[in-house]
Amino acid sequence: MAKILGIGNATLDIILTVASYPREDDEVRCIDRAIRRGGNAANTLVVLGQLGHACSWAGVLVDNADGRFIQDDLETHGVNTRSCRLVETGSVPVSSILLNAGTGSRTIVHYRDLPEYSFADFRSLVLRSMDWLHFEGRNVEALQAMFHWSREHYPSIPRSLEIEKPHPGIEGLFSLADILLFSKTYAGSRGYADPVELLQSVHRHYPGADLFCTWGENGAVSLDRGGRSTRQAASIPPRLVDTLGAGDTFNAGVIAGYLAQRDTATVLRQACALAGEKCGRSGFDDLALSGFSGP
Ligand code: ADP
Ligand code: FRU
User: Fold this and answer.
1) 6, 8, 199, 207: which sits with the fewest CB atoms below 10 Å from its CB?
2) Cβ neighbours for 78, distance < 8 A, ≥ 6 positions apart
3) Do 252 and 292 contact (CB within 8 A), yes or no?
4) Ligand 1, CB within 6 Å, residue ranges
């Protein structure tokens, strides 16, 4: 069991399941409605908790009923929330999500009115006993300070960075992480139609990290710091149920794989298997745990 700190978002996800995706200006009924705790870093930690790790979340919440709902859910899943900052006003981040029952696809409309977790918040944490730090790629300036500070004071703790969206200046963080986890959205924003080409370009400029990029139903690719690339097909579940948080689950699989001292290609294969398993079920509970223990 490793101690993992995740820094990033926790959200309130309002999920409406529809039989098929509506047209603009339609009025349709949903076939299911759920309110769940979400957020990239939070989802990743909940999966890592199931894989047997001791996880803590660092982020911002509002001191209201929604904030308590999110905090309770994390604690129920064994994720420690003592490092979170509670603010008095504003709203927790809310995602309104249409989940297409026909394809498993998810369409997210996100609302945000909350300060970001600051470097001052991060600096007050006791990191000494941590085995892994995972950062959600947002709030770039503060993250840069967190990376530099943690590297100076705790150089041996491995650090992963998720790059899902193209935030201005985020490339400035690439040389600071050990593992970079890219999304298809980020690759598209940089004009790449092939994930290996994105990773080769990143590797040329920042050769010190192991790189991953997910590609939805087409699986994912990796490129290790030695320059070896691997393509992995997706692991297709018997029935596609819910792809919300597939990327967050993939990231949990990668972190767990490295903690179990797997090589990069094995990490990639197991992360795709875990993400595919997640796509076959609703939410993040009861995922298959095979293949993740021991070095
Ligand atoms: P995100 O959730 O960030 O949009 P992706 O859609 O790229 O991320 O999915 C992450 C991983 O989840 C993929 O690399 C793949 O392994 C798995 N995955 C995503 N969609 C499917 C699918 N339809 N069938 C099987 N696996 C999937
Ligand atoms: C899924 C997710 C949702 C959240 C949204 C935030 O990856 O973390 O749970 O609402 O993304 O961008």
Assistant:
1) 207
2) 49, 54, 55
3) no
4) 104, 164, 183-184, 214-217, 219-220, 234, 236, 240, 243, 246-247, 250, 272, 275-276, 279
Domain ranges of the chain: 3-287
The tokens describing 194, both together, are 């092939």
270 contacts 292 by C-beta, under 8 angstroms = yes
Please write the tens of the pLDDT for every residue from 51-99: 999 999 999 999 999 999 999 999 999 999 999 999 999 999 999 999 9
**pLDDT (tens digit per residue) in 20-61:** 999 999 999 999 999 999 999 999 999 999 999 999 999 999
Q: Is 11 in the pocket of ligand 2 (CB under 6 A)?
A: yes
C-beta 43 within 6 A of ligand 2: yes
pTM of the predicted model as reported, rounded to 2 decimal places? 0.96
Residue 295 — very low, low, confident or very high, per pLDDT cuts 50/70/90?
Answer: very low
Q: How far apart are CA 108 and CA 165, in angstroms?
A: 13
38 ligand 2 Cβ < 6 A: yes
